[in-house]
Amino acid sequence: MRPLFVFSIIAVALAAASPHAKRAAIDDCLKTAKVPVDAPNSSDWKVDVHTFNQRLLYTPAAIAIPNTTEHIQAAVSYASFGLGGENGHLVLQLDRMDEVTLDTNTQIATVQPGARLGHVATLLYKQGKRAFSHGTCPAVGVSGHSLHGGFGFSSHTHGLAVDWIAGATVVLANGTAVNASDTENTDLFWALRGSGSNFGVVAAFKFKTFAVPSLVTTFEINLPWTNASAIVDGWGKLQDWLKVDMAEELNMRILGNGYQTQLQGLYYGNSSSLKTAVQPLLTKLSTTLSNVQELDWMTAFQHYSYSQETDITRPYSQGETFYSKSLVTSALPANVLKNVANYWVNKARSNRRSWYIIIDLYGGANSTVTKVPADATSYAHRDPERDLFLYQFYDTAWGTYPAEGFDFLNDWVEAFTNGLNATQWGMYINYADPLLNRTQAQDVYYRQNLARLKQIKKALDPAQVFYYPQAVEPAK
Ligand SMILES: Cc1cc2nc3c(=O)[nH]c(=O)nc-3n(C[C@H](O)[C@H](O)[C@H](O)COP(=O)(O)OP(=O)(O)OC[C@H]3O[C@@H](n4cnc5c(N)ncnc54)[C@H](O)[C@@H]3O)c2cc1C
Ligand SMILES: *[C@@H]1O[C@H](CO)[C@@H](O)[C@H](O)[C@H]1NC(C)=O
Ligand SMILES: *[C@@H]1O[C@H](CO)[C@@H](O)[C@H](O)[C@H]1NC(C)=O
Ligand SMILES: *[C@@H]1O[C@H](CO)[C@@H](O)[C@H](O)[C@H]1NC(C)=O
Ligand SMILES: *[C@@H]1O[C@H](CO)[C@@H](O)[C@H](O)[C@H]1NC(C)=O
Ligand SMILES: *[C@@H]1O[C@H](CO)[C@@H](O)[C@H](O)[C@H]1NC(C)=O
Ligand SMILES: *[C@@H]1O[C@H](CO)[C@@H](O)[C@H](O)[C@H]1NC(C)=O
Ligand SMILES: *[C@@H]1O[C@H](CO)[C@@H](O)[C@H](O)[C@H]1NC(C)=O
Ligand SMILES: *[C@@H]1O[C@H](CO)[C@@H](O)[C@H](O)[C@H]1NC(C)=O
Ligand SMILES: *[C@@H]1O[C@H](CO)[C@@H](O)[C@H](O)[C@H]1NC(C)=O
User: Which of 48, 152, 413, 432 fits a disulfide with 135 by CB distance 3.0 to 4.6 angstroms?
Assistant: First the structure.
């Protein structure tokens, strides 16, 4: 995908003669349509072009800074005039549109598309002690995150961010604004929830919310995975437990890096109920609970945010240089477990790169994520038998990102996929891997839902106004 991890930015495909002519023509069009734009090279331009992943820098043809649905419509309409044929996109920087308003009668929140998760969580809590399920990083934008999944420390209990979308106002490729929900534009609504970046610009969301519990309990469990056979043994026991026994109220992930390997968790209940819920696992793994803390809702969010600030709004200027990959897999058969454990110990722990792996305990019989029927939304990883773990592989560098970093993560992922058949694994577009070609990207991100997505793309955006290198292709 285009600039990775830029926060709630939309790139609209543009074409043009020369970069200068293109920029001048777009700026002129946008000004005529009264869409606010950044002056090239202005201080706002520099803030708005910032990407979290400093490995993937780029220069747009123009940056529109809409703050209304009409601005978005005007920008998309002009873009679709098609100005030529090479690099450069019109970027819509949406982070000025970040209002969050809870209706305390319906408990439905209206959320503008440029809000970041920490801002959303803070305002929903302030306005009515409400929340919806989403990821941990407060600076992540609500749009890309919720339109393509959104997994975090409430997902085993409450599902993905995408499952809390009740409706959206969407600017389509032809500049029309429509509403999508269970009762309006239902094909679009299905496609948006899993693959939204391909079908339009969401100008406003409606999210359902839940009442936050008065306290939750965070905890850690150190894993004595000091050698490959300990990993094989422990992982085998862990996946058997996850498949049938992990309580819905438990939310857990493995965090592994060069220094430690531990389970981190958040339990919807107090510490004594937590102990009862995890004791069978602790016994199987011969380990104990540590760092158990009963916390109120916002403190628990901060606990896993790894950020000093929670309510993050514009401007935001942090970033790092990294390569990242994902996987979603079934339970691992013995031969795969062995290869994975050997790679972890002999290739990952023994190198000096700055890496981590996060393995979310994602599925199983009591996971709310996989209780949603597999075809209810276009989000592809919902099979209760098949989709057990969600992985993020992450490797950071200072300065130019080196070739060995790509090999390091690609080989690790292959340690899994080489022993699995194609139906047993997929990938998660929110941890997009720009090295996948378009065909493979569509297959692994959308799996059994791809054919229907291509039909809807053909109906709504046959000219591919909303384009990035891994975008859904219209059906022929
Ligand atoms: C530090 C960090 C922590 C993360 N933690 C988690 C986590 O805990 N769980 C998890 O599931 N993911 C996590 N992610 C991944 C995150 O969910 C994705 O990066 C997500 O795509 C970010 O959305 P965005 O809007 O900020 O990004 P952008 O890069 O701006 O957008 C991503 C895609 O969505 C499109 N898009 C953006 N806005 C709109 C809109 N209004 N309408 C239509 N399409 C739109 C863009 O064009 C682009 O294709 C994390 C990422 C980072 C960098
Ligand atoms: C952009 O601004 C910098 C100073 O901030 C200047 O050095 C540079 O020449 C400018 N570039 C263009 C293309 O205007
Ligand atoms: C909309 O954007 C313009 C230009 O950036 C700004 O002057 C104006 O104050 C904004 N309006 C609102 C309501 O934020
Ligand atoms: C979409 O819904 C909003 C309210 O959520 C409403 O104001 C607007 O008129 C609707 N637009 C269309 C095109 O139906
Ligand atoms: C591997 O680690 C486990 C648990 O720490 C330990 O009991 C076992 O002896 C180790 N095995 C080898 C071969 O080092
Ligand atoms: C988990 O799900 C299984 C199968 O539906 C059920 O039998 C079991 O009681 C659940 N366990 C917990 C702890 O909720
Ligand atoms: C913990 O929660 C359980 C279940 O809600 C409740 O029965 C119990 O009394 C609570 N214990 C304490 C110490 O609060
Ligand atoms: C893939 O593996 C699954 C689970 O073991 C099995 O049911 C299925 O038949 C296999 N499919 C192919 C094409 O080998
Ligand atoms: C895309 O990648 C897949 C997997 O690596 C490969 O099999 C396929 O040949 C590639 N397709 C193209 C068109 O390059
Ligand atoms: C815009 O596209 C939508 C979806 O294809 C279609 O229903 C609508 O009629 C189009 N509007 C215009 C003005 O062309």
Answer: 152
Residue whose token pair is 């002009």: 78
Ordered DSSP codes for 428-446: -GGG--TTS-HHHHHHHHH
Q: Which of 433, 435, 437 for mutating ligand 9's site (highest number of atoms within 8 Å of CB)?
A: 437
Q: What is d(CA 57, CA 62) in angstroms, rounded to the nearest whole number?
A: 15
pLDDT of residue 59: 82
User: Can you give the three-state secondary structure of 62-131, one letter per residue?
Assistant: EEECCCCHHHHHHHHHHHCCCECCCCCEEEEECCCCCCEEEECCCCEEEECCCCEHHHHHHHHHHHHCEE
The finding on whether 243 has its CB within 6 A of some atom of ligand 6 is no
Given pLDDT bands bounded at 50, 70 and 90, which one contains residue 22?
low
Query: What value, to the nearest 5°, has the Cα angle with vertex 25 and ends 21 and 30?
Result: 150
How many other CB atoms sit within 10 Å of the CB of residue 206?
Answer: 18
Distance between CA 53 and CA 308 in Å, rounded?
Answer: 20
Determine contact, residues 395/353, Cβ cutoff 8 Å.
yes
275 pLDDT more than 90: yes
Report d(CA 330, CA 68) in Å as an integer: 43
d(CA 239, CA 260): 20
The arithmetic mean of pLDDT across residues 445-454, rounded, is 98
Nearest to 359 by CA among 247, 245, 235: 235
123 Rama sector, left if φ>0, alpha if ψ -120 to 50, beta otherwise: alpha
Residue 71 sits at φ, ψ, to 5 deg, of: -60, -45
Q: Which residue has the tokens 């910032």?
A: 50
Select from 144, 157, 128 the least CA-distant residue to 205: 144
Residue 186 is predicted with a pLDDT of 98
What is the whole-number distance in angstroms between the Cα of residue 438 and the centre of ligand 9? Answer: 8
- pLDDT, averaged across the chain: 92
Phi and psi at 303, nearest 5°, equal -55, -40
Question: What's the length of the chain?
Answer: 476
Asked if residue 437 has its Cβ within 6 Å of ligand 9, the reply is yes
User: What is the arithmetic mean of pLDDT over 135-146?
Assistant: 97
Q: Which residues contact 452 (CB under 8 A, 6 or more apart)?
A: 190, 191, 378
CA 275 to ligand 1 center in whole angstroms: 35
Please state, for a pLDDT cut of 90, what percent of the chain lies above it: 83
Any residues with Cβ below 6 Å from ligand 10, and which?
A: 172, 174, 176, 459-460
For residues 290 and 54, which has the higher predicted lDDT (pLDDT)? 290
